[in-house]
Amino acid sequence: MRVLVVGAGVTGLTCAVVAAERGHHVDVLARDLPRETTSAVAAACWYPYLAFPVDRVLGWARRSYEVFAALAADESDGGPGVLVRRTQELLPERSPDPWWREAVPDLRRIASPPDGYADGWTFDGAVAHMPRYLDYLERRLAASGGTVTRMALSALPPGADAVVNASGLGSRLLSSDETTSPVRGQVLRLPPVPGVDEVVLADRDDTVTYVVPRGDDVVVGGTSEPGVWDLAPRTQDSEAILARAAALVPALRGAPVLGVRVGLRPARLTVRLALERREGASPVVHCYGHGGAGVTLSWGCADEVADLLDTL
């Protein structure tokens, strides 16, 4: 079966890989090539963020965790660029176990959280170096005969047995779905810092701060601005992010900034993953609205997309 996948971010590429490896002929069409997408900006640590409903998200996140844990075993030069990193999340108040507890094997409470925090836990999480990881997905797709082509679309494409709509914010146009909206996020890249080898996530004063060491750099963030389309980096945001990150991980103080990036997370009240049969047109499997959890849900969602394609 010929499948056209719309969108070359992590969701679209992963859907394409799984479908191609199940024997479908897959071509990816996208306005932005993989390294130009929001996915390329992501700090990309495994964490279900801004994605609903929790029951479906839990299953997708669990499956993706399993795949990332296996990918992390490949440390070759041409490997996927996935690492297992000890991850700690800090909270300002005592809290029950997180709703995604079942997706990870080893969550443990932090006995003595640092000053300013009342609770927290640690677990072994996955981190993907996104430029390298997106390249890996492209190579894996090509190995199964798939292609990636730059193409600006004003509608979902004709001429295939099925279409996978993984267009993220593009779904506002391609699916006339204005319930998908941006959540602006700004991140900074710092050089590797000795001793900084754990992911730290902290939620305080309604602001999420994160420090994600990826091997050849450290990504720190961030911002979370619903409904904001501005892709220009802001100096005041960078200064605030650096101050919060250094307060959380003092070893970062004085580290130079290698780069600043802004991405627009495609948020929706619920992830749309469903088959739509259309009169006189190819059926569409929609897969978008992953918020800040595109990487975290990618393999679980791709399996479900491929299962739906297999029913056609």
Fraction of residues in β-strands: 25-35%
Number of domains: 1
What name does CATH use for the topology? FAD/NAD(P)-binding domain
What is the arithmetic mean of pLDDT? 96
Fold and architecture overview:
By secondary structure, the chain is α/β, with parallel strands linked by helices. It has one domain (2-310): FAD/NAD(P)-binding domain (3-Layer(bba) Sandwich). It has six helices and 15 strands. Strands 3, 4, 5, 8, 9, 10, 11, 12 and 13 form a nine-stranded mixed beta sheet that branches. The chain has a six-stranded mixed beta sheet with strand order 6-2-1-7-15-14, with helices on one face. A hairpin with a 4-residue loop joins β10 (207-213) and β11 (218-221). The N and C termini lie close together (9 Å).
Q: Which secondary structure elements does this structure contain, and how are they paired or packed?
A:
Layout: E1 2-6, H1 10-21, E2 25-30, H2 54-71, E3 82-91, E4 108-109, E5 119-128, H3 130-143, E6 147-150, E7 162-165, H4 171-174, E8 181-190, E9 199-204, E10 207-213, E11 218-221, E12 225-226, H5 235-248, E13 259-267, E14 272-276, E15 284-288, H6 294-310
Parallel strand pairs: 1-2, 1-7, 2-6, 3-9, 7-15
Antiparallel strand pairs: 3-5, 4-5, 8-11, 8-12, 8-13, 9-10, 10-11, 14-15
Helix pairs in contact: 1-3, 1-6, 2-6
